[in-house]
């Protein structure tokens, strides 16, 4: 857990430092996707950068969590690292969520719900709450009941879809799209390894 928390702290620090160092550059458009009138003021550029940089930090942390997810019931070592990075990624994601909702949009849900800059605000909110619930269950329940396992697969699948689509498809920068595709590659490799292990005689599936 310590490694994951230190990674989260380091990535958050790098995110804020990176945002500060690039706040005078037009890395991200002040206009929403598709053009139209700008929905961000030039004075908000620093907070806009912090919003993007923090979601990148969360994405980096969610890669090992999603990659280890399928192995958590086969290895105590994998289970510990999965939970550590799943929790650390959530903490960083909550920083991003706060910065986007409260700081960038001023907690104005009318703007959030009607801007093309946020593709699925309701789903993102449900996901944030669901992720918190799953982490709480993981830390408080000693074993996985069927319903816990079912919802856990659901929230991990949703995490993959939202992070991948947000970065690989909707990312403005090559760096963002690269992170999204790196997530997909890592998860695909982990699924392939999991399938190989299941196919081996005598391996518990």
From TrEMBL:
Q: Which UniProt keywords apply?
A: Membrane, Transmembrane, Transmembrane helix
- Which protein is depicted? Uncharacterized protein
The UniProt record lists the keyword Transmembrane: yes
- TM annotation in the entry: 51-71, 83-105, 125-141, 153-168, 174-196
